[in-house]
Predict the structure.
Amino acid sequence: MMNFFQRLQMFMQGRYGLDTLNKFLIGLSLVLYFVNIFVFDRLAHFIILLVIVAVYALLIFRALSRNINRRSAENRAFLKVYDPVKAWVKFNIRRFKDRENYRYRKCPTCKAVLRVKNKKGVHTVRCPKCNYEFKTKIR
Ligand SMILES: [Zn+2]
């Protein structure tokens, strides 16, 4: 006799399952659900509910799909947008945490972002990426 998880495993065989886009859709539906708690207008509340249902339908469709090539292509297209946004958010969180001890400067030649100790005065900085030396002022 098979238990539930073995049956589920057999059912999911050859199906697409979870990827970054599907995880994002789960997060999106949870955020919408939370936001909808504070929406008191009945029509707006209903529309957001419809969007949540549509997101779930898309999520279930993608997870159970057997067209794995197509779903991976969708995920790759999604990651092209998602990864830079995630990197930007991570960078700015780090920049905010470092705000007492470090300043961030852009290399004038290669545009790499450099972290400089927060000490007042004019400093000579060498870019580790392109080796260009430049002066920067920290006040
Ligand atoms: Zn550089």
